[in-house]
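Dear colleagues,

For the upcoming journal club I promised to circulate an example of a predicted protein-ligand complex. I picked one with S-adenosyl-L-homocysteine because it came up in last month's discussion. The inputs are reproduced below in full, followed by the predicted structure.
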Amino acid sequence: MADEFPTGSVWLVGAGPGDPDLLTRKAERLLRTATIVFYDALVGAGVLALIPASVRQVPVGKRAGRHSKEQGTINDLLVAAALAGERVVRLKGGDPSIFGRSMEECSALVQAGVQVRICPGVTAASAAAAAASVSLSLRGLARRVQFATAHKRGAAPLDLDWAALADPHCTTVFYMGRSAAAEISRNLQAAGLPGATPVLLACDVSLESERLLHTRLDLLHIAVAGFSADQPTLILVGEALALKNGPAMPAFDAGVLDGSICGVPSRTA
Ligand code: SAH
């Protein structure tokens, strides 16, 4: 695959949500052909295990509240490795084009005269919908799908267009929203979305530790309390999420307020 991956070039590769079986064949091939791999904290251990021992693995992990390398440092590392003649894979959780800061890395590489290409991955929202046996779009109920980042910067309120996010005919997926759950619930309701709107909480999707929980918008802030701030969690909001065709899943409603049901692992439910 010399043409696909010349020395001194970089591939931004989507690692999917964690399960190595959700990696594309192309991603796996690139991981085997690389000479060095820079990977994020959210890349699954099973994916890293596919990288041959001869390939250098460098963690540049970003994870909420934990020390990680600055974006500028990561850009510099990628450029330096490529200019040194390595075949560089920059491995990112999910899909590189979704909240992955991929364009900052691409720009730095292009400016340095380095060839960079992108290999897509399964984004967490797609994997969560599949795990919960729901569809993100749904004829008549959800004719639009939107992905939003709810990443909190300190105590500042989220700077989001709540009127657009509160579209009742849309499925809205919040990435990085665990610590903003109460704010999301409050603002969507203030913008007109009914408190009974179905919500799906999805944590560690596609991994052994996966947890899925159905709840409703006005209970979101309580339901989320059982989810660790440490694990990647998605908040999906919209009527389409109520129509599930798969196995039974734990539900969190007004009758179950002690939070214990939040601990039920979905795979044993
Ligand atoms: N590029 C990634 C998203 C990076 S932002 C993608 O396409 O999936 C990081 C956020 O993604 C996490 O805070 C979480 O909200 C979500 N996420 C990533 N992997 C996840 C997983 N396995 N389960 C649940 N949420 C996940």
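Two points we might discuss: The domain at 9-119 is CATH 3.40.1010.10 (Cobalt-precorrin-4 Transmethylase; domain 1). The CA atoms of residues 155 and 180 lie 10 Å apart.

See you all on Thursday,
B. R.
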